Amino acid sequence: MVRPPSIDSNGMKKGAWSEDEDEKLRSYIQRYGHWNWRLLPKYAGLKRCGKSCRLRWVNYLKPGVKRGNFSKEERQIVIKLHAELGNKWSAIAEKLPGRTDNEIKNFWHTRVERRRKPNHLTKPINTISFIEKTDSSEATSLSTSQDLSVPFDDASFSTNSSQEELELMLSEMLKEDVAQNEGLAAHVFNEEVLEFDYPELRYSELSCSYGSFWNESSNASNSESETSSYSYNANPPVEEEGLLLTYDPLLQYFDYETSLFW
DNA sequence: AAGCCTGCCAACCGCGGAGCG
DNA sequence: ACGCTCCGCGGTTGGCAGGCT
Asked: Which residues form the Myb-like domain (predicted)?
């Protein structure tokens, strides 16, 4: 899991840290502090560059550094803060005692970001189902409902999507929601398609309303058009694929315990 | 059983900003 | 104002471990 030790052109060791090196660095910093990272390794008796020492200390040796899986609360905080701050890992880490920016960044890239990529898809066909909601001011009631299932060639989330995957996918929607900085937010599926099928969680419960739909064949100008009647292509070619959905801010109130919104 | 693939995470690298002379 | 040094941040890489075929 770690890089094998090696020596660079300056005679500095690189790669995985040994227990002996850890102990030298730990005991030196506990005794003298880190007054100058560049000079520290020399005084601590380490053949490492200052940068490497700093990284090892901050991410691994520093007292209080937490290891292991992120708790549900921590995941929620990361997701929420990322929606607000973007890739400001150090700023996010400040709000999560014991977690380092590196760890949060790894968490994001491996558990969240990855899942948005079409190549991550495992099943050939999936559906995205939602129910039209005409009055966005009444978040909890639906005046009309229309169940639409849109098949896609790619599917980010299989029907066996885990609770965690679902949470993460929804959190991504929330990020877009926040990013729009409007009462109602938009999430464009055009470039990064997020699809899922999760029977327990229909869009009716998200109080989501669809907005518009790309359909090149029906729009010569290739422009986005609001569709009061949903233009539905049962099997759209990839270049025509794309769905613009608007979400109610209610999306923020997703209950991670029940998988439902309230 | 063996080879391949994917997930995960420690560590590296490059860049930009702050501080200082 | 400028150049240099140092530090911290964010992006990326390398490779082990475990699952899959």
From this structure: 9-61, 62-112
Q: Are residues A124 and A249 in the same domain?
A: yes
**A109 and A239 share a domain?**
no
A102 and A132 assigned to the same domain:
no
Q: How far is the CA of A56 from the C1' of C7 (A)?
A: 15
Q: Is A59 (CB) below 7 Å from strand C?
A: no
**Which residues from the 31-50 window of protein chain A have CB within 7 angstroms of nucleic acid chain C?**
36-39, 50
Closest nucleotide to A106: CA versus each C1': B9
| Same domain as A148, residue A208 | yes
| Residue A43 main-chain phi, psi, to 5 deg | -75, -25
A91 phi and psi, to 5 degrees?
-65, -40
Q: Which nucleotides of C are covered by protein (CB under 7 A)?
A: 5-12, 14-17
The CA–C1' separation of A106 and C14, in angstroms, is 14
Co-location of A141 and A241 in the same domain: yes
Same domain, residue pair A89 and A179? no
| pLDDT of A38 above 80 | yes
The model's pTM: 0.56
Residue A234: pLDDT band (50, 70, 90) is: very low
Query: Which positions ≥6 away from A240 have C-beta within 8 Å?
Result: A214, A215, A216, A217, A233
